[in-house]
Design goal:
This protein has 194 residues and is an alpha/beta fold. It is built from 7 helices and 10 strands. The mean pLDDT is 87.
């Protein structure tokens, strides 16, 4: 089982620049009230300096799970400088999105803005529609990850490659990504479709 991913781990999933431009168009349409087909929509909270990890996670969510990902940095309707309008638009998109995921890098954990988004996402999406995606620095030990307390209170994305033990003993879980609630794990695809 892997419960904390490593920075750079999703480089093979990373979206290309052409897809990044498509994401710009989709984010613009979505923020203006447009519906993006039948896809599950995700507000992906992140720290802008984690761009490579962000591109990898977006690639994973789009390509493997057919999800529509909204990131505020791709929304040209956002003010150039952070203002109350920025917060108002972010609140609208979080409310409108089906799911909220925090790309929980050490940078994002230390960001007041990401923590504000997480708090608002918690209030609007609560337990079944919010998750964190924990990513530690490359080469760091799990205990160097700054978001352990987040993993104690929020569902988080994990990867199972064997089995998970729970209070009833061993339960076999098919290899893949899950949203882990501590007492149970739901396949990521199923969670996205809830």
């Amino acid at each position: 089982m892997k419960s904390i991913f490593e920075s750079g781990e999703f480089l093979n999933e990373r979206i290309q620049d052409s897809t990044y431009r498509e994401l710009l168009t989709e984010s613009r349409q979505y923020s203006q009230g447009g519906v993006i087909s039948h896809k599950t929509t995700i507000f992906l909270s992140h720290k802008h300096q984690d761009l490579e990890d962000l591109k990898g996670v977006i690639g994973l969510l789009r390509n493997k799970y057919n999800a529509q990902v909204y990131i505020d940095s791709m929304d040209d309707k956002m003010p150039l400088e952070t203002t109350g309008e920025t917060a108002r638009r972010i609140k609208q998109i979080i409310e409108k999105s089906n799911k909220f995921i925090l790309l929980a890098t050490n940078n994002a954990i230390e960001s007041a803005w990401c923590n504000w988004e997480l708090g608002y996402g918690d209030a609007k999406k609560y337990y079944n529609h919010i998750a964190i995606f924990p990513i530690k620095p490359q080469g760091a030990a799990d205990n160097q990850y700054k978001g352990h307390e987040y993993m104690q209170i929020y569902p988080h994305v994990t990867y199972y490659n064997d089995y998970k033990k729970d209070w009833m003993g061993k339960i076999y879980l098919k290899q893949g990504y899950y949203v882990d609630y501590g007492y149970t794990s739901i396949p990521l695809q199923e969670w996205l479709n809830k």
